[in-house]
Design brief:
The chain is mainly α and 148 residues long. 55% of the residues lie in helices and 9% in strands. Helix 1 runs parallel beside helix 3.
Length: 148
């Protein structure tokens, strides 16, 4: 599966677009729509800049990586809304967090309702509850539960 335009809009809405590298809430240098590593593998660093076209390109590159992870790790059927919610979640938290999460375990056990509730647990950065993450997880949960 691939992330729909609706899913991409969700990601962009929460990530925001920054053409100058910035330190995110978790202490990581980030650019564009939340990119932390360039397509060549190097990390974003202080002082980096990008164009709008590059920001879009970085997003697309990052999405392929996370879509591949979801397609590999999820063993049960998903509808487009569920996939888009997982894309936003994984885009924000990374493959490692998805792969070791109770969210994924519940999903692969076909506990879709339990999976939806797990989104809400991932609202902290640096051990602190973040309002933006709380809003994002609620939006992901709602999308996950939304009928196609």
């Amino acid at each position: 599966m691939k992330t729909s335009q609706s899913g991409i809009s969700l990601i962009k809405g929460f990530e925001g677009k920054r053409l100058n590298a910035y330190y995110d809430g978790a202490g990581v240098w980030t650019i564009g729509f939340g990119t932390t590593r360039y397509p060549i593998g190097t990390r974003v660093k202080k002082g980096d800049t990008c164009t709008e076209l590059q920001a879009e390109s970085y997003l697309k590159n990052d999405l392929v990586k996370f879509e591949n992870a979801i397609n590999r790790l999820v063993k049960v059927p998903l509808n487009q809304n569920q996939f888009d919610a997982l894309s936003s979640f994984t885009y924000n938290l990374g493959e490692t967090n998805l792969s070791s999460s109770t969210l994924l375990k519940k999903l692969n056990a076909k506990d879709y309702a339990g999976t939806a509730d797990q989104f809400l647990r991932w609202n902290k950065a640096g051990g602190k509850v973040m309002n933006g993450l709380t809003r994002r997880r609620e939006a992901e949960r709602n999308l996950f539960l939304k009928k196609v």
